[in-house]
Structures are given as structure tokens and as C-alpha cells.
Fold this sequence. Notes:
The complex is a heterodimer. By secondary structure, chain A is mainly α. In chain A, 77% of the residues lie in helices and 1% in strands. Chain A is built from 21 helices and two strands. Chain A has a two-stranded antiparallel ribbon with strand order 1-2. The longest helix of chain A is centred in the middle third of the chain and has 32 residues. Chain A is globular and about 65 Å long. The two termini of chain A are 19 Å apart. Chain B has 21 helices and two strands. Chain B has a two-stranded antiparallel sheet. In chain B, strand 1 and strand 2 form a beta hairpin. In chain B, helix 3 packs antiparallel against helix 20 and helix 6 packs antiparallel against helix 7. The interface between A and B is medium-sized, with 32 and 32 residues.
Amino acid sequence: MPANNYEYFLLLPHIVLSVGIVLSILIEIFTKKGKEILPWVSSIIFLFVGVYSLLTLDKNFLIFGGTVEVGGKAAIFNFIFNIAALLTVLTSIDYIKKYEIFYSEYYILIQSSVLGMMVMSMAHDIIVIFMGLELMSICFYVLAGLNRKRLSNNEAALKYFLLGSFATGFIVYGIALIYGITGATSIQNIFENFIQYSNNILFIVGMLLLLIGFSFKIAAVPFHMWVPDVYQGAATSVTGLMSTAGKAAAFSVLIIVLGSNLTYSSPIAFRNYFSIIALLSTLIGSIIAISQNNLKRMLAYSSIAHAGYMAIGLAAGNKYSFAGIVFYLAAYVFMNIGAFTIISIIEGKDETRLTLDSYAGLYKKNPFLAAMMSLFMFALAGIPPMAGFFGKYYVFFGAIQADLTWLAIIGVLSSVISVYFYLRVIVYIYFMNETEKFDIEKSLGGNLAISLTGLLVLFFGIFPDTFMNLITNFIK
Amino acid sequence: METTILSILLLTPILGSILVLFFKDEQKNIIRWFGFVVSFIAFLISIIAYLKFDSSNSNFQLTHQIIWIKSLNISYFVGVDGISLLLVLLTTFLTPLTFLSTWKAIDKKLRMFTFSMLLLEAGMIGVFISLDVFLFYIFWEMMLIPMYFIIGIWGGERRIYAAIKFFIFTMFGSLLMLVAIIWLAVYSSGSNGQFTTNLIELYKISPTIPLKIQSWMFAAFFLSFAIKVPLFPLHTWLPDAHVEAPTAGSVILAGVLLKMGTYGLVRFCLPLFPQASINFAPIISVFAVIGIIYGALVSMVQTDMKKLVAYSSVSHLGFVVLGIFAMTVESVQGAVIQMVNHGLSTGALFLLVGIIYERTHRRDIAYYGGIAKLIPLYSVALMIAMLSSVGLPGLNGFIGEFLILIGSFKSNVLDNFWFTAFAATGVIFAAVYLLWMYQRVVFGNVTNQSLENELTDLNTREFLVLIPIFIFIVWIGIYPSTFLNLTDSSVKNILQQVSQSTVNILK
């Protein structure tokens, strides 16, 4: 265990971000130009934290009495969160004016939610997990309803808040039960004696409540009811962040919990639970997405299906599948934020131009956006050589290694279903003639975000090893 | 011997497809020339590869291996044997010709078209030269994207339906193959201590898979290839895709894409799962024979020329599948040469249908009649292509079908001459539907006066497209040894692998 001063040094990313939040609030209070300055301040902070985390991967320690982990897995997640946030901020610069949420608070809330995620992914103690979760969720509730004059925004925020707090209630109750039985909040303590505790029905109930709460956060069937309305109602850039980084944060916790289970006790508990979740999510998500005409809603259902594919990895529960989930999450961040950025650029005032019809003949209006949207759709559908394919590949690989071949088959079948609705977008873009005339606003930040994600999607697809090696080194 | 010639061959069209994006859409002629020149350079490179190839050696040659994904032990590993080299040559030979053939026909979004075609060429070459199952899968899936665009953007009336159907059918099969590939990699770690998708190592490992699981693996691979071939009753995407695709798309589809399925059967199904292949051979052959007769009968009643040619593909590829699963040297040799023949003769037929379609925008047989008087050169060209497809001795089609029929007749695996007997009727039917079509279109009086204004005879460009194909049609027909020698030792090698490992299991 490192010396005390050093511990703070290892926490530099979190400290920088916290200071950044305070600084941003001060900027907001004391200058009138906060709205113009803050996106760049946040971008620099996110960029620094993301890159710094990636550079300090190998400084992997448990600190503060074993309650938090720095470096290693946590650092990889920090990288994912911060890149996602950076891309979202770039997207937002022009978008939030159009959406009439041109407030400085927007950026401060994003920074805070990212801090919450970072706390979640570093936690090795259920209380710390809970702290991070609440910090993230509350920021998201506010972000979802930032435009208080808009009905759909209010609906999204309220739905998200009510159902989200319900899920949080599950988690708290689960934590209470677990603590009641084990007398400990440290994940290591709990799982070292897992077999002994698991004879106690209350402990199992507590664990299940915890998992159900997080199943809600990752948007898996049957806890997915909030997803379509919230994703559709919230501002597009916020949806992009919620559906990627928010999901990644929830998965980071599940990986910590299940990974510890694997490390300290041999039986793979909860495999059936996650198998069923995965089965339902992939199939239901893909099938319902077919009938969606609103692109945000379609991507909401596709996000449910993607949560299902990742849950296949949780069910498999071995090194490859966990590493696969992390890779998948990173790939998903790029593909999905890329797609949402394009949607936010096309979107008109008052939530118009969100349906597929607006995309008809897009290639004529803007070949760049058309090509990139197709790239993201192919990537989401899991066609090689895009990053999305390798995400699925690693997860299925883990599943087959764990003798869950049937689950992998379910996974590929729902992939086939999902191909239909992803391709439909491309059909509109390339194969149909335009039906409505409108001008696409120029957005420098948006185009930057799209180019960046597009390049990363291809890079991760053609050289998956670069990132995968980092992950496998730190997943035990 | 490591050499990079195949990698250069693969990179040429990829590089070309990236470079073409830097042109402006208005520079139409430059883009056309660019596409043609790049694909022609690829053809020249493949000729160099052919000259470097030693056909007496049955091992994979011109190999090039770079580690790609270390954690799963996947490498970029390419190389050819006689069979794959022949198909690579077919690909690089047909691609510049399709560019030339669509000089006028494709006018909108030319840049995108050239991009798609070159990417498609790279994907097809990649499929044929991959010696790593995973790499093979990547190329196999990757080429769906350009083909999807080619059908969807430049296709006919129902192009969207056809494009999506094509994509989803193929994807369905190939994703199950992906599961099987992963399963193989995991299995190999059990016996080998290390994951591997290297084909040469899998050749050693996978025949030891217990028969029950081997059958499932075989089924997953076979389904994927059978959809692509397409084998009856999985053929329904083919007529749609063919009819809706633009001429260039149809030529590539018939000429090369369908061969990827049959190539997969030879390269993967037989040597990887020999016992399962032998067990399933009779059932598959039944479907192949049904496909031969069904395809021919359906062709007979078509009123649309393109659809007629499309259904004739189902029939011809039935022969190929029958030849492969008869598993004799003659039949497999015949199947390989028939793949090339079908590429040439059906490709030529599609080109010719495309040529008059360009002039009249009609494909229904009833619209035409007596065009021999109006466009005699075209009629001669159509006759050569048609006779080659019918299997007239002296032209290429005869060689392939003959070899397949005698091979399957004496096959020990099928052990039943009825397969051959029924398959042979397909040859007769082929003569019926093609000659009948020819008669209705070409002979007799000019039935439709508007034809006189619309039709003009072949121009120089169209000649340049057709002549090279006809040269090969006659070459294979008269002196097939050039091509049979190329594949001889590779075919024997594969069949030896099958018999060796099945003997091992029987012990």
C-alpha cells in the first residue's frame, strides 16, 4: 500500500475534475460569458483526465483502506467516460442553442455526472458505489429535464426520476440487507465468504435487489420501460451521454461485483439471472426497434439490445467476456455518440426532423453526414471491420468459452434482426429521394465529434488489439 | 516462402477505393478511367502472382503472415493454392470488364459506384486468399456492404427490397458461421493449448472433433455457404438480387460472388469436417439435383430475360455443388472449372442482356423478336454466350459439366448413379430454355417496329468487353488443361485430407 501523500497523487483525475467543477461554478457566477467559455474549459478537463488516466494505467493500487481502486480497470473506464463526455461537449456547443438550453449549468452538470461515474468505476465498497451512482443519476435527472418549458423534456425527467429513484430504492434496500447479513460493505469482504453467506436467503435477496437496481440502470429488459420515453424526450446530446457513459458506469459496477465474485469464490452465481436478462433484452430490443420511425426512439431500443449483448458477457463471466464488455462499451460510446451527434445536427427546432423521413436523400444534402451515419449504422449492426463487430465478437467468444453457445446463438440471431432496422436508415439516406427541404446547420464541434468517432470506430475495428491488450492486462 | 505479392494485390483496390473519394463528382470520365485502370493494375498483379505460382506444389503458396490480434492468436494470413488462384484470376479478370461495360449505363453517383466496386473487388480477393478463418469471415462480411449499395442505389424498381433481402439472407448464414468459428477457436485451445483460427492448423485439429458436434459445425458453415451459392431451397434471394441489380452488379454477383459459396464448401466444409461432409453428402446432393432441375424448369417459363439467366444460375450451381460432394478427383476438378465457366458464360449473358436493356429499357422476351436482322453482331455474341452456357462441346461449359457428371457417376460417397442420371437432364433442360429464349428473341420477323429505331449494334467498347470473355470461353473449351493443371494437385490434396481423416476416425 502506498504512502498517504501518494494516494492523493493517484487520485489526480478525480481531484482535477472536482476542482474543475468548482472552477466552472465560479466562472458561471462571476462572468457573463460562462456559456461560451465553459465548453472549452470542460473539454480541456475531460481531455486531460481521459489521457492522464490512460497514461497511468499501470499504477494500479487499492487505496484508502481498500475502498477504492486507482489505475488499471478504473482508469480504462475513466478514459471511456471522459472521451464520451468530451464528444458530448463538442456536440453540445451548437446544439444546445438550437434546443434552447443554452445555460452554463449544462456543462457543470455533465462534469458532475462524469465525476459520479468515475467514483462508481473506482469503488470497491458498496457505499462508495452508491455515492457515485447518486451523483451521476441526479445530474442525469436534471439534464434530462433542463428545458423546463418543453413538455417532452418534463415527461422524460419525471419518468426518469421516478423510476430511477425506484431503482435506487432497490439498490439501497439490497445494500442494507447485505450489510445486515455480512456486517461489511467492502466488496472483498463480502465475496471472500460468499459461499458461506449464500446459505442465507436474505443475503441472496439483497444481492438480487442490487443486481436488479443495476439492471435498471443498464436498461435491460424487463427493467427497460423508462428507456424509450426518456431517450426520446431528453435533449439529443444528453441522450447520447446517458446511453453510453451512463450505461458504461453501471456496467463497471456489475463487472466489479461479478468479477470479485469470480476472484474470491468459484461458482459463477447469477449466471441464470444474466442469461435471462440477455436473452430478453437482445430479442425484445431488436424486435421492437424494427417498428420505430423516430430515430431517437429506435436507438433507444437498440440500446436495450446492446445492453443485452453485453449482459451475455456478464452471464459468461470469464476473462474474455469481461474484457469484451469493456471493449464493447468503448466501441458503443463511439458508435452511439457519433450517431446521436448526427441526429442532433439534423434535428430542427422544436424536436422536428427526428423521423426517418427527414433522412431521405441525405446523401444529396450532405454526403459527409450520410457516409458517417452509414458507418455508425454498420458499426452498430456489428459488421466487420467496424469496432462494433469486435465488441460482439469478444463477448460471444467469452460465452462460447463458458459453454453458453446457445446464448451466443440467440445473440447472433437478434443481430440479424437488428440488421434490418439499421439498414433501414441507410435505405432512407442513400436509396430514397428527399421528401422535405431544409438546410442543415453547420456545426464545427459536431463535425469534429463525428470525424473523431468515425476514425475511432474504424481504428478500433481494424486494430482491436491496441485497446484489447490494455483491457486484458487489468481484467483478472 | 514469404512474399507480399498477394497483399499488394489486396491493397491495390482498397487504395484505389480510398483515392477515388478525392475526386469531384463532376469529373466523370476521370473517375471511370480511374476505376478501370486500378482494377486493370490489380489484374496485372494477379498475372504476376500466377507466374510466380508453382502448380505442381499442392501446398499454399505466396503466403504472407502478420500477427493481427495477439490475444486471440488471429493473424493476417494470406496465400493461395490452385483453386483460390484460379478464382482470384477470375475476379481480377471480370472487374475491369464490368467497369468497361458500365461506361454509359451508370451516370449518377459515379464516385460512390467506383468506390463500391473497388471495395467489392478487394473483399472478393480477400475471401479467396484468406488462410485464417477469422480473416475470411471479415472479408466475407465486408463485401456485403458495397454489394448492398450497388443493388440499392443503381438497381431497378424493387431495389430496396432486393438489397435488404440479399443482406439479411447472407448475414443470417454467416453469423451462425461466426459462432462455429469461435467454437473452433475455443476447441483448438483444448487440444492445442492456444486459440487458433489459422486454417492450416485447424485442418489438423478439427477432423478430431467428435462426430456429433462436427455435424453441427458442418451445418453452421454449410448453411452460410449454401445461402451464398445458392442451393435450393435457399435460393430465393438470388432472382431478386439479380433482376434488381444493375448490369455490373449482376455480372459480379453471378461471376464471382456466388463462387464464394462453392469455394467455401471446397476450402472449409470438406477438409475441416470430413466425416460430417461424407455423412451429409447424399442429402446435399439430393438438394443439388433438385436445384438443377428446378432452376431449369423455372428458367423455362420466365418472361424476363434477366430472370431467366438468374434462375439458370441456380441450375448451374447445382452442378457445382453436386460435383463437390461427389468427392472424386474428376467431379471436384469439374466443379472448380465449372465455377469459372459459370462466371464467364453467365457473366457474358448478363452483359449481353444489359447491352440491349441499355438501348430499349426492356427486358421482357415478348418485346423482342427477329433482332438478328437488326443487330447481327449482337446476335452472334449472344449465341456464343448461350451455347457456352448450354454446354456445347468445344466451348467451356461442356468441360465442367462433363467432368462433374462422370465424377459423380463413379463416386463412392454418393454410390448411386441416379444422381448423375437426374443431373444430366439439367443439361437438356438448359438447351431447351436457352435455345427457346434465343429463338424468340433473335429469329423470325421483326415483331416490334420500335426496335428498329432503338437498337444499334455492338460498339467498340462493348466488343472490347466481350472479346476477352469469348477468348477464355473457347480456350477452356478446346484446351482445358491450362486450367485443370493449375488446380489438379490442390484438388487431390483436399480429397486426400478428407479420406485420410475419415480413415482415422473409422479406426
